[in-house]
Design brief:
One of its GO terms (cellular component) is cytoplasm. The chain has 297 residues and is of the alpha/beta class. Helix content is 27%, strand content 27%. The chain has two domains: 148 residues, Quinone Oxidoreductase, Chain A, domain 1; 119 residues, NAD(P)-binding Rossmann-like Domain (Rossmann fold, 3-Layer(aba) Sandwich). The protein has nine helices and 15 strands. α7 links the parallel β11 and β12. The longest helix is centred in the middle third of the chain and has 14 residues.
Protein backbone atom coordinates (compact mmCIF):
# COMPACT_ATOMS: atom_id res chain seq x y z
CA UNK A 1 0.00 0.00 0.00
CA UNK A 2 1.00 3.66 -0.34
CA UNK A 3 1.79 5.51 2.88
CA UNK A 4 3.31 8.86 3.87
CA UNK A 5 6.19 8.60 6.36
CA UNK A 6 9.16 10.57 7.67
CA UNK A 7 12.50 9.12 8.80
CA UNK A 8 13.85 12.30 10.39
CA UNK A 9 12.35 15.37 11.99
CA UNK A 10 12.24 18.52 9.92
CA UNK A 11 10.24 20.58 7.45
CA UNK A 12 7.63 19.35 4.96
CA UNK A 13 10.42 18.10 2.68
CA UNK A 14 11.10 15.14 5.03
CA UNK A 15 7.75 13.58 4.10
CA UNK A 16 8.02 10.62 1.75
CA UNK A 17 5.38 8.59 -0.09
CA UNK A 18 6.49 4.95 0.10
CA UNK A 19 5.28 1.40 -0.42
CA UNK A 20 4.60 -0.12 3.01
CA UNK A 21 3.13 -3.25 4.55
CA UNK A 22 -0.56 -3.07 5.32
CA UNK A 23 -1.46 -2.69 9.02
CA UNK A 24 -4.03 -5.00 10.63
CA UNK A 25 -6.69 -4.46 13.25
CA UNK A 26 -5.80 -5.66 16.73
CA UNK A 27 -8.18 -6.25 19.64
CA UNK A 28 -10.57 -3.33 20.06
CA UNK A 29 -9.63 -1.83 16.69
CA UNK A 30 -10.92 -1.70 13.14
CA UNK A 31 -9.03 -1.22 9.90
CA UNK A 32 -10.38 1.02 7.18
CA UNK A 33 -9.68 1.51 3.53
CA UNK A 34 -8.95 5.21 3.83
CA UNK A 35 -10.90 7.53 1.57
CA UNK A 36 -9.74 10.79 3.17
CA UNK A 37 -7.50 11.89 6.05
CA UNK A 38 -7.71 15.12 8.03
CA UNK A 39 -4.72 17.49 8.03
CA UNK A 40 -4.20 18.89 11.54
CA UNK A 41 -1.55 21.24 12.96
CA UNK A 42 -0.54 18.46 15.36
CA UNK A 43 0.57 16.46 12.30
CA UNK A 44 3.28 18.95 11.34
CA UNK A 45 4.17 19.66 14.96
CA UNK A 46 4.95 15.95 15.38
CA UNK A 47 6.88 15.95 12.07
CA UNK A 48 8.97 18.88 13.29
CA UNK A 49 9.88 16.97 16.47
CA UNK A 50 8.08 19.25 18.90
CA UNK A 51 7.82 17.69 22.35
CA UNK A 52 4.18 16.65 22.59
CA UNK A 53 3.72 14.24 25.47
CA UNK A 54 0.45 12.89 24.11
CA UNK A 55 2.11 11.83 20.86
CA UNK A 56 5.53 10.22 21.42
CA UNK A 57 7.21 9.53 18.09
CA UNK A 58 9.45 6.65 17.07
CA UNK A 59 11.22 7.03 13.74
CA UNK A 60 10.47 6.09 11.02
CA UNK A 61 6.93 7.30 11.61
CA UNK A 62 3.69 7.52 9.71
CA UNK A 63 1.63 10.69 9.64
CA UNK A 64 -1.97 11.54 10.48
CA UNK A 65 -4.59 10.93 13.16
CA UNK A 66 -7.97 11.53 11.51
CA UNK A 67 -9.60 9.61 8.69
CA UNK A 68 -12.81 8.50 7.08
CA UNK A 69 -13.23 5.31 5.09
CA UNK A 70 -14.76 1.88 4.77
CA UNK A 71 -14.24 -0.81 7.41
CA UNK A 72 -12.49 -3.86 5.97
CA UNK A 73 -11.20 -5.58 9.14
CA UNK A 74 -12.81 -5.84 12.57
CA UNK A 75 -10.59 -6.68 15.53
CA UNK A 76 -11.32 -9.06 18.38
CA UNK A 77 -13.92 -7.81 20.85
CA UNK A 78 -15.31 -5.11 18.57
CA UNK A 79 -19.09 -4.92 18.29
CA UNK A 80 -21.54 -2.59 16.61
CA UNK A 81 -19.61 -2.24 13.36
CA UNK A 82 -19.22 -4.50 10.34
CA UNK A 83 -17.04 -4.83 7.27
CA UNK A 84 -18.41 -2.44 4.68
CA UNK A 85 -19.56 0.25 7.12
CA UNK A 86 -18.56 3.86 6.40
CA UNK A 87 -16.93 5.39 9.48
CA UNK A 88 -14.87 8.37 10.57
CA UNK A 89 -12.63 8.71 13.58
CA UNK A 90 -9.11 8.72 14.96
CA UNK A 91 -6.33 6.25 14.32
CA UNK A 92 -2.69 5.83 13.41
CA UNK A 93 -0.73 6.83 10.30
CA UNK A 94 -3.87 7.83 8.44
CA UNK A 95 -2.07 9.37 5.43
CA UNK A 96 -2.20 5.94 3.80
CA UNK A 97 -4.38 3.63 1.77
CA UNK A 98 -5.22 1.58 4.88
CA UNK A 99 -5.19 2.65 8.54
CA UNK A 100 -6.02 1.14 11.92
CA UNK A 101 -8.59 3.13 13.91
CA UNK A 102 -8.77 3.30 17.71
CA UNK A 103 -12.00 5.34 17.85
CA UNK A 104 -14.74 5.62 15.25
CA UNK A 105 -18.39 6.28 14.58
CA UNK A 106 -20.65 5.70 11.64
CA UNK A 107 -20.56 8.65 9.29
CA UNK A 108 -23.55 10.99 9.41
CA UNK A 109 -25.81 10.79 6.38
CA UNK A 110 -25.13 13.26 3.59
CA UNK A 111 -21.46 13.72 4.58
CA UNK A 112 -18.82 12.83 2.03
CA UNK A 113 -15.65 11.01 3.14
CA UNK A 114 -13.74 14.20 2.40
CA UNK A 115 -15.96 16.23 4.73
CA UNK A 116 -16.10 13.58 7.47
CA UNK A 117 -12.31 13.29 7.70
CA UNK A 118 -12.16 16.90 8.87
CA UNK A 119 -14.15 16.43 12.07
CA UNK A 120 -12.72 13.94 14.62
CA UNK A 121 -9.73 15.65 16.29
CA UNK A 122 -11.17 19.09 15.59
CA UNK A 123 -14.41 18.43 17.47
CA UNK A 124 -12.66 16.64 20.34
CA UNK A 125 -10.28 19.59 20.72
CA UNK A 126 -13.09 22.15 20.55
CA UNK A 127 -15.17 20.37 23.17
CA UNK A 128 -12.12 19.95 25.41
CA UNK A 129 -10.92 23.54 25.36
CA UNK A 130 -14.42 24.96 25.90
CA UNK A 131 -14.68 22.72 28.96
CA UNK A 132 -11.18 23.52 30.23
CA UNK A 133 -11.53 27.29 29.93
CA UNK A 134 -14.70 27.13 32.03
CA UNK A 135 -16.87 29.48 29.97
CA UNK A 136 -20.63 29.32 30.55
CA UNK A 137 -23.87 30.34 28.89
CA UNK A 138 -24.29 34.10 28.94
CA UNK A 139 -20.55 34.76 29.12
CA UNK A 140 -18.27 35.96 26.30
CA UNK A 141 -15.46 33.87 24.86
CA UNK A 142 -12.65 35.40 22.80
CA UNK A 143 -11.17 33.04 20.20
CA UNK A 144 -7.81 34.04 18.71
CA UNK A 145 -7.29 32.35 15.35
CA UNK A 146 -10.96 31.53 14.92
CA UNK A 147 -11.29 30.64 11.23
CA UNK A 148 -9.48 27.29 11.16
CA UNK A 149 -10.97 23.89 11.85
CA UNK A 150 -10.90 24.01 15.65
CA UNK A 151 -12.02 27.64 15.66
CA UNK A 152 -14.91 26.85 13.33
CA UNK A 153 -16.04 24.10 15.68
CA UNK A 154 -15.55 26.20 18.83
CA UNK A 155 -17.64 29.07 17.48
CA UNK A 156 -20.56 26.82 16.52
CA UNK A 157 -20.51 24.68 19.66
CA UNK A 158 -20.19 27.71 21.93
CA UNK A 159 -23.08 29.52 20.24
CA UNK A 160 -25.22 26.38 20.48
CA UNK A 161 -24.54 26.45 24.25
CA UNK A 162 -25.57 30.07 24.64
CA UNK A 163 -22.05 31.50 24.86
CA UNK A 164 -21.30 34.80 23.13
CA UNK A 165 -18.20 34.59 20.94
CA UNK A 166 -15.72 37.14 19.59
CA UNK A 167 -13.37 35.76 16.94
CA UNK A 168 -10.17 37.17 15.48
CA UNK A 169 -9.05 36.28 11.96
CA UNK A 170 -7.67 37.86 8.82
CA UNK A 171 -9.65 40.45 6.89
CA UNK A 172 -10.71 37.88 4.27
CA UNK A 173 -12.38 35.69 6.90
CA UNK A 174 -14.51 38.29 8.71
CA UNK A 175 -17.74 37.36 6.94
CA UNK A 176 -16.98 33.68 7.48
CA UNK A 177 -16.79 34.21 11.26
CA UNK A 178 -19.99 36.23 11.26
CA UNK A 179 -21.70 33.42 9.39
CA UNK A 180 -20.79 31.10 12.28
CA UNK A 181 -22.43 33.43 14.79
CA UNK A 182 -19.36 35.28 16.08
CA UNK A 183 -18.63 38.96 16.46
CA UNK A 184 -15.62 39.27 14.17
CA UNK A 185 -12.55 41.48 14.28
CA UNK A 186 -9.14 41.42 12.64
CA UNK A 187 -5.82 40.68 14.28
CA UNK A 188 -2.81 42.92 13.72
CA UNK A 189 -2.02 46.39 15.04
CA UNK A 190 -4.62 47.66 17.47
CA UNK A 191 -6.46 44.34 17.84
CA UNK A 192 -6.52 44.48 21.64
CA UNK A 193 -8.26 47.84 21.67
CA UNK A 194 -10.71 46.67 19.02
CA UNK A 195 -11.61 43.74 21.25
CA UNK A 196 -11.92 45.91 24.37
CA UNK A 197 -14.48 48.09 22.59
CA UNK A 198 -16.63 44.98 22.00
CA UNK A 199 -17.18 44.45 25.72
CA UNK A 200 -16.14 42.27 28.64
CA UNK A 201 -14.11 39.12 27.91
CA UNK A 202 -14.80 36.28 30.35
CA UNK A 203 -12.46 33.67 28.83
CA UNK A 204 -10.12 33.31 25.87
CA UNK A 205 -8.70 30.60 23.64
CA UNK A 206 -5.47 30.78 21.63
CA UNK A 207 -5.81 28.45 18.65
CA UNK A 208 -3.05 29.87 16.44
CA UNK A 209 0.03 30.24 18.64
CA UNK A 210 0.70 33.73 17.34
CA UNK A 211 2.31 35.11 20.50
CA UNK A 212 -0.78 36.71 22.04
CA UNK A 213 -0.96 35.00 25.44
CA UNK A 214 0.08 38.11 27.36
CA UNK A 215 -2.66 40.13 25.70
CA UNK A 216 -5.26 37.42 26.32
CA UNK A 217 -4.35 37.34 30.01
CA UNK A 218 -4.73 41.13 30.15
CA UNK A 219 -8.10 41.00 28.42
CA UNK A 220 -9.51 38.33 30.74
CA UNK A 221 -7.70 39.52 33.87
CA UNK A 222 -6.84 35.95 34.87
CA UNK A 223 -4.39 33.45 33.31
CA UNK A 224 -6.65 30.63 34.47
CA UNK A 225 -9.29 31.91 32.05
CA UNK A 226 -6.99 31.40 29.06
CA UNK A 227 -6.22 28.10 27.31
CA UNK A 228 -3.93 27.54 24.32
CA UNK A 229 -3.51 24.57 22.02
CA UNK A 230 -0.67 26.13 20.04
CA UNK A 231 1.79 28.08 22.22
CA UNK A 232 4.32 25.94 24.10
CA UNK A 233 5.38 29.04 26.03
CA UNK A 234 2.11 28.92 27.98
CA UNK A 235 3.64 28.09 31.41
CA UNK A 236 5.56 31.37 31.34
CA UNK A 237 2.22 33.22 31.37
CA UNK A 238 0.52 30.93 33.88
CA UNK A 239 -1.68 29.72 31.03
CA UNK A 240 -2.82 26.13 30.50
CA UNK A 241 -1.53 24.32 27.43
CA UNK A 242 -4.12 21.77 26.35
CA UNK A 243 -2.54 18.93 24.43
CA UNK A 244 -3.92 15.68 25.83
CA UNK A 245 -7.11 14.45 24.21
CA UNK A 246 -10.18 13.54 26.17
CA UNK A 247 -12.64 10.87 25.06
CA UNK A 248 -12.62 10.70 21.28
CA UNK A 249 -15.61 8.28 21.18
CA UNK A 250 -17.67 10.74 23.23
CA UNK A 251 -16.59 13.59 20.95
CA UNK A 252 -17.58 11.62 17.85
CA UNK A 253 -20.99 10.89 19.38
CA UNK A 254 -21.52 14.59 20.03
CA UNK A 255 -20.24 15.48 16.56
CA UNK A 256 -22.75 13.12 14.92
CA UNK A 257 -25.56 14.67 16.96
CA UNK A 258 -24.55 18.26 16.18
CA UNK A 259 -24.13 17.53 12.48
CA UNK A 260 -27.48 15.72 12.32
CA UNK A 261 -29.22 18.70 13.96
CA UNK A 262 -27.60 21.16 11.59
CA UNK A 263 -25.62 22.81 14.39
CA UNK A 264 -22.13 22.02 13.10
CA UNK A 265 -20.63 22.34 9.64
CA UNK A 266 -16.91 22.65 8.90
CA UNK A 267 -16.15 23.31 5.24
CA UNK A 268 -13.22 21.73 3.43
CA UNK A 269 -11.06 24.56 2.14
CA UNK A 270 -8.67 22.44 0.08
CA UNK A 271 -7.96 18.79 -0.73
CA UNK A 272 -4.59 17.18 -1.53
CA UNK A 273 -3.37 13.82 -2.78
CA UNK A 274 -1.03 11.58 -0.76
CA UNK A 275 1.78 12.72 -3.05
CA UNK A 276 1.06 16.33 -2.07
CA UNK A 277 1.23 15.81 1.71
CA UNK A 278 4.21 18.15 2.00
CA UNK A 279 2.21 20.95 0.36
CA UNK A 280 -0.69 20.25 2.72
CA UNK A 281 1.64 20.64 5.71
CA UNK A 282 3.19 23.81 4.36
CA UNK A 283 -0.24 25.35 3.80
CA UNK A 284 -1.46 24.27 7.23
CA UNK A 285 1.63 25.75 8.88
CA UNK A 286 1.10 29.04 7.04
CA UNK A 287 -2.33 29.42 8.64
CA UNK A 288 -5.13 31.62 7.28
CA UNK A 289 -7.25 28.48 6.86
CA UNK A 290 -11.02 28.70 6.50
CA UNK A 291 -12.30 25.36 7.78
CA UNK A 292 -10.33 22.20 7.02
CA UNK A 293 -7.67 20.73 4.77
CA UNK A 294 -7.78 17.04 3.91
CA UNK A 295 -5.83 14.36 2.07
CA UNK A 296 -7.94 12.44 -0.43
CA UNK A 297 -6.79 8.85 -0.99
Amino acid sequence: MKKVIFTEFGGPEVLQLVDAEEPHAGPGQVRIAVRAAGVNPVDWRIREGQVLGAHPTVLPSGVGLDAAGIVDEVGEGVTGVEVGDSVFGEGFSTYAEFAVMSAWARMPEDLSFEEAAGYPSVVETALRVIREVGVRAGETLLVSGASGGVGSAVLQIARERGIEVIGTAGAANQDYLRGLGAVATTYGDGWVERVRKLGRIDAALDLAGSGVLGELVDLTGDPEKVVTIADLGAPGFGVRFSGVAGSVPDALTEAVDLIARGKLHIPVEKSYSLADAAAAHADSHAGHTRGRRVIVV
